[in-house]
Amino acid sequence: MVGGGEGSFIGAIHRMAAALDGEIELVAGCFSSDPERGRRAGAQLGLAASRTYPHYETMLETEAGLAADQRMQFVAIVTPNHLHFPIAEAALRRGFHVLCDKPAALNLEETLALKQQVDSAGGLFGLTHTYAAYPLVRQARAMVTAGELGGVRRVTVSYPQGWLADAGDTCASPQAQWRTDPQKSGESGCFGDIGTHAHHLAEHITGVDITELCADLTTYVDGRVLDDDGAVLFRMANGARGTLTASQICAGEGNDLQISVYCDLGSLAWRQETPNALVLKRRGQPAQVLKAGVNCDYLHRDARAYCRTPAGHPEGYIEAFANIYRDFARAIKHGSTAIYPSFASIDEGVRGMLFVRAVLESSRNHSTWVRLGDLVT
Amino acid sequence: MVGGGEGSFIGAIHRMAAALDGEIELVAGCFSSDPERGRRAGAQLGLAASRTYPHYETMLETEAGLAADQRMQFVAIVTPNHLHFPIAEAALRRGFHVLCDKPAALNLEETLALKQQVDSAGGLFGLTHTYAAYPLVRQARAMVTAGELGGVRRVTVSYPQGWLADAGDTCASPQAQWRTDPQKSGESGCFGDIGTHAHHLAEHITGVDITELCADLTTYVDGRVLDDDGAVLFRMANGARGTLTASQICAGEGNDLQISVYCDLGSLAWRQETPNALVLKRRGQPAQVLKAGVNCDYLHRDARAYCRTPAGHPEGYIEAFANIYRDFARAIKHGSTAIYPSFASIDEGVRGMLFVRAVLESSRNHSTWVRLGDLVT
Amino acid sequence: MVGGGEGSFIGAIHRMAAALDGEIELVAGCFSSDPERGRRAGAQLGLAASRTYPHYETMLETEAGLAADQRMQFVAIVTPNHLHFPIAEAALRRGFHVLCDKPAALNLEETLALKQQVDSAGGLFGLTHTYAAYPLVRQARAMVTAGELGGVRRVTVSYPQGWLADAGDTCASPQAQWRTDPQKSGESGCFGDIGTHAHHLAEHITGVDITELCADLTTYVDGRVLDDDGAVLFRMANGARGTLTASQICAGEGNDLQISVYCDLGSLAWRQETPNALVLKRRGQPAQVLKAGVNCDYLHRDARAYCRTPAGHPEGYIEAFANIYRDFARAIKHGSTAIYPSFASIDEGVRGMLFVRAVLESSRNHSTWVRLGDLVT
Amino acid sequence: MVGGGEGSFIGAIHRMAAALDGEIELVAGCFSSDPERGRRAGAQLGLAASRTYPHYETMLETEAGLAADQRMQFVAIVTPNHLHFPIAEAALRRGFHVLCDKPAALNLEETLALKQQVDSAGGLFGLTHTYAAYPLVRQARAMVTAGELGGVRRVTVSYPQGWLADAGDTCASPQAQWRTDPQKSGESGCFGDIGTHAHHLAEHITGVDITELCADLTTYVDGRVLDDDGAVLFRMANGARGTLTASQICAGEGNDLQISVYCDLGSLAWRQETPNALVLKRRGQPAQVLKAGVNCDYLHRDARAYCRTPAGHPEGYIEAFANIYRDFARAIKHGSTAIYPSFASIDEGVRGMLFVRAVLESSRNHSTWVRLGDLVT
User: GFO/IDH/MocA-like oxidoreductase domain: from which residue to which, for each copy (chains A, B, C, D) (predicted)?
Assistant: First the structure.
């Protein structure tokens, strides 16, 4: 693991997720850019001092030199965004598999470069778009892509958070500091951080690409450089339309990601804060509330495979993350990502950065329509 | 009453709403453009044959000739849109007050003409933007306009319906027929019908005008002329931003109008299908669920005045409509609309048609931003 | 109407309910035991002074003397409980139909006497067990009694209110005063007032009688004579079991009546505060949320007939009450109660008082089982 | 670990829970009474063959003989109920700490014997009443026991499940088989299995003992010996009253444990299937929805300590279990259970078995009141 030392939120989540199913062991780490803090973190985690490294390069080099059955098998990157690319690139170069927190890199260019590396290197690469790993998101995707509700007509996805609502919030945590810093976060703030989740969810559930969009970004809080709020109109490859809203200045909100997909024959609605319910409304019928559970025979096989408990025993965010880790471990074991769909590929990472670039470009140009396909030539 | 005969949905709602509080009596009507059907409707409603009129002009003329304590006091217009203007204009000219189903008229020009008539005539004019008459919408407005949550930052309003989802639906009811017919419905379908409700709610709760917008309308169902779906990005006079989605082709949906208003210090969310709950999230505090009820001392006076029952005894759509009728009757009685806020004014009617015009213009011009103020000179 | 003057909650509800559908007209009333207050109420309601009576006997006598097409057709009784019997008895004797707020009378003996009168008199008698008149309660009854979910196994019904939580509440309203006064309320407080609603709902939805019960009543608030809280275990004629809880001292609660009926093949759950949703869980299937609406083809005919609006336009407590009034008016018109099921019969009234008597007897005897059938011989 | 091999539901949950926080390592196990299956399970879990034992006695003996820094530190018992006592007793005797799935033992007598052993042995003993380990249950307990809502008046706890609804279900899983077998499950079926959870929750949240009860148990499904459904009226030490319903034959239900605690000044309601919301209704105020989250400053310290994520990132059943494991590990580390409240003590185990015994005795005696205190002398 690289990153995830003291004060990191996501590092601890990754570690719990990796540990949950007993298939993955944390064997080495470089937890902080400050070697002393990194050492402390390693010790707290019970790691041997010899495998708590002061720098990721040292870690990659040393581990690569260990015997095959001794060395770490993959690297989890949980650093701020600006380090995703150099670390991932180096790890892949050394022959390690890489599971990286999203976004894939600092910007579109880096992500395309990373894609080249992924395509040429032997290692697997995965991106943690966690929300796609919830069982009922998998169910939604299975239903919509199989056409069970007919074609997609409209998608409404909204992601309000409130943790950056005030100027004071900007310095309240290391998280907040680097996320609002273009050097570390990238060219977008809110849209790079959570807009990409909303975008991924929309394309992942429908199986249809967003082809063009028209965006209006804002920075509400004084002193901030990057966007902290915005909304997007979009059109999809099949003619569907949609809206995407993402905001980090909605005071009082937690993490209220929600999506509705309206199709020819009915709609699906899912809300991250109550993830074990998927509301299905078919035309002329009572609404149905699908639940997650190993015993829910009505779920698609792909959805049930991501449940650990029977219906009524709620699973949550850490389990969704754990689905990704388990899939990634199994993909490594089988040398293929083919049947392990809960983590995102580098191609999905590229799409995410295309989305961010298009949003920024449209917003800068009076919300003119921008075609995502025009951004890469 | 003009309109509201057999097959009319909204006519019966208006009548129940008018009757509910025992302050209004239906004394005359012209219920159909087909005199025979109109007569039948009048008889069913227990109206004297002499006061069931074959044409609205006859009604206005005859009633105007009656003694002051005999004649009807106001006209409720519940016809298709294209008749709103001529009937309202004629009624006002004859000295009657007018309560008209929304929208005010077929288009912006007619509405402006109607405004002139309203401004010069002695009679009162009211528009039934029903959703604004729910007690908890009044509460939301009271809180936001008083600044209890600080300034408005973002508004998300969404209005999905499914009753026009298929080509077959277009002819399934008289309702559907005239609503999809530009001659009777106006220049917009979905946005004239329900987009105007969403727009009204956004401005009404916040007390802030939408100043410019950028829209993307669609017609999903083959053979239709008017829009049946669309979405809008908007900006408000105070710098707030928002999205508005309206659709009548969301198969499986009923009448799921919902609005979230995110402010500096917290947010409010209201959903029409569960109208007796208003969710208030203040930063750093537990969410609160405000309820409607005459005994809810925590509600603003203006909100409680629109409740008839104690909390826990649900009121609904008809009661919201009845609030409008009761307010209109009382405004007539007191000769002033000043303290009767549950019905919309002709100015709000004009704003609604400005909104529709701007949406159409933007959508036709590749979703360029259109300033509402530029549409009237 | 008898009762329902100033300070009465339920009188106004009855009047709105009666007016809603335009089929009933308030023509005469005796609104208060204080003639002056009664006169004032009549004037406010726009009633002719000649038909605002100082005493119900005068009203019955005078109205009975009017021509058939002039006199009132039925009497609505909305007084405190102790007057139900004498007024109903007198009205039936004079040949009037009677629609009476529940409970039927002050106690079991009076109710049985009233039943004799009803059985021998020509007039119709109806009891307003309002909750049974909600469309989705009718749906639940239709489904369960048709055996769609197999046999009933368990019923859980709970009715917490908080309006009598404190000693101070006892005097806070005329309502609270007479409800806690055995002379006016009867031998039970909470169970006579709302326990009877819960009991009626349980038997009405299932179509199965409660045959025996075991109860534990309490009086939490100092200075009160009657029960203000309690719970019951019960057994039903088909072998099903259940619990019933009713309380008026649950501080913070409104009117949270809720019932779950668990059957061989699935369960139904309904909650009065969100009355337009009925949750159906069938074994091995996603939960379904049935909605009320004239356009909900999946509802039983008997349920749809009690809707006025399409799904998504919420109806509530007043509409449920109005269903009773409309049914009662139609029953009078057709001279039969056979197909008008939304109001309760005198037999259901007797069952309610049997229930109360059994609850009191059991509670007094260390919660021994009491068979309802043993209480009448 | 003892038990938890193939086909075990709860064994896998315990292992995930133990692994989640990275503070506990599975080092030895005896996973099945069939040595071959046990070996297979150990291998699948990556355990050394030398520490996968064919019998728990062998395990205890062998491990006890290992060096202190090598041997296992505590034993997790996840077998059917009849093995809890012998294994726990043996483990404690050998000086191991014991964390045992509930109930503590097969019956009251065994549990009292176990208590003697716990009291005399040096080891710690913990019982996994999982639901008490949810953060918002801890919050509820903190609020109620601190008297923030005044005294407790009424408790309604209900636990409907449907997995044993039919005769066919009895043999559908090893789980179902032993749970319906008195030799392995104990003298009660449903009440031993889930009634004890409901009982524990009621006493744990309120901090008040149930002193007497009156019960009505049933066996709905033919061929079953033990109860599969029942309900209880109870009284508490402070004069509060309540009802407890538990059932495993409610077809269509999952694991819908829910509790409402009504106090002098307001009520709290929690539902296990949506565990991250706690509804607080204070008299005269809007309902509040408290959420779980490390960042929810309004939560009691004891509640926040059991959160791993910020509000809006749902945690669930496995995390609740993990709270218990983490607390138990820390209690071992600090040699004291004093500040680790998420697991239950042997005294709580005794109370659970007292409850079951009282329920059975009351139900057998026509639901007479049974005082729990009279069962031990």
Answer: 137-268
Q: Residue B356, Cα to own-chain centre: how many angstroms?
A: 14
pLDDT tens digits for range B266-287: 999 999 999 999 999 999 999 9
Strands annotated E in A241-308: 241-247, 258-263, 266-271, 277-282, 287-291
Q: Which CATH number characterizes residue C77's domain?
A: 3.40.50.720
**pLDDT value at position B321?**
97
Q: Which helix (H) or strand (E) holds D89?
A: helix D84-93
Q: Are residues C207 and C243 in the same domain?
A: yes
ipTM surpasses cut 0.90: yes
Burial of C171 (0-12, 13-18, 19+ CB in 10 A): exposed
Nearest by CB to residue B289, choosing from D284, D289, D297, is D289
CB A302, CB A138: distance < 8 Å: yes
Full residue range of the structural domain in which residue D46 is found: 9-131
Per DSSP, C30 falls in state B
pLDDT in tens, A104-135: 999 999 999 999 999 998 899 999 999 999 99
- Check residue D155 and give its pLDDT: 98
Whether C170 and C84 map to the same domain: the answer is no
A158 chain-B contacts, CB cut-off 8 A: 156
Domain boundary among A131, A161, A185: A131
DSSP classification of residue B52: B
Are D116 and D139 in a shared domain? no
Verify whether the Cβ–Cβ distance C249 to D262 is below 8 Å: yes
Alpha carbon of residue C251 to chain centroid: 23
Judge if A121 and A60 occupy the same domain. Answer: yes
Within this chain, do residues D234 and D351 fall inside the same structural domain, yes or no? Answer: yes
Does an H or E element contain C271, and which?
Answer: strand C266-271
Q: Which residues, 6 or more positions from C164, have their beta carbon under 8 angstroms from its beta carbon?
A: C170, C176, C179, C180, C190, C221, C228, C248, C249
Quote helix, strand, coil % in chain B, to nearest 5: 40, 20, 40
> Same structural domain for residues B142 and B107?
no
**For D21-56, b where at least 16 C-beta lie within 10 A, e where not — what string?**
bbbbebebbbbbbeeeebbbbbeebebeeebbbbeb
Distance from CA of B271 to the nearest CA of C (A): 10
Q: Which of B150-154, C166-170, C224-228 is predicted with the least confidence, judged by mean pLDDT? A: C166-170
- Please compute the mean of the pLDDT values over residues A246-258 and round it to a whole number: 97
Same domain, D53 and D184: no
Please state, in angstroms and rounded to a whole number, the distance separating the CA atoms of residues C244 and C363: 14
| Arithmetic mean of pLDDT, C206-211 | 98
Cα–Cα distance for residue pair C211/C155, rounded to 1 Å: 13
Note the pLDDT tens digit of each residue in B250-271: 999 999 999 999 999 999 999 9
Sheet holding B2-3, edge to edge: B2-3, B74-78, B97-101, B125-128
Partner residue opposite D256 with nearest CB, options A21, A272, A312: A312
Selected for mutation to probe chain B from A148, A152, A153 (highest B CB count within 10 Å) is: A153
Does residue D170 fall inside a structural domain? yes
**Residue B322 domain-assigned (yes or no):** no
Q: Which residues in chain A have Cβ-Cβ distances shorter than 8 Å to D16?
A: 20-22, 308
Please say which residue of D77, D112, D131 terminates a domain.
Answer: D131
- Total of domains in chain B: 2
CATH number, domain at A301?
Answer: 3.30.360.10
- Region C293-297: what's the mean pLDDT? 96
* Same domain membership, residue A55 and residue A22: yes
Please report the pLDDT score of residue D214 as a whole number: 98
* Residue C201 included in any domain: yes
C125 Cα to chain B: minimum distance (Å): 24
In a domain, D195, yes or no: yes
Chain B neighbours among A 349-368 (CB < 8 Å)?
366-368
Ranges of beta strands (E only) in A272-356 are 277-282, 287-291
Six-digit token pair at C117? 């009168």
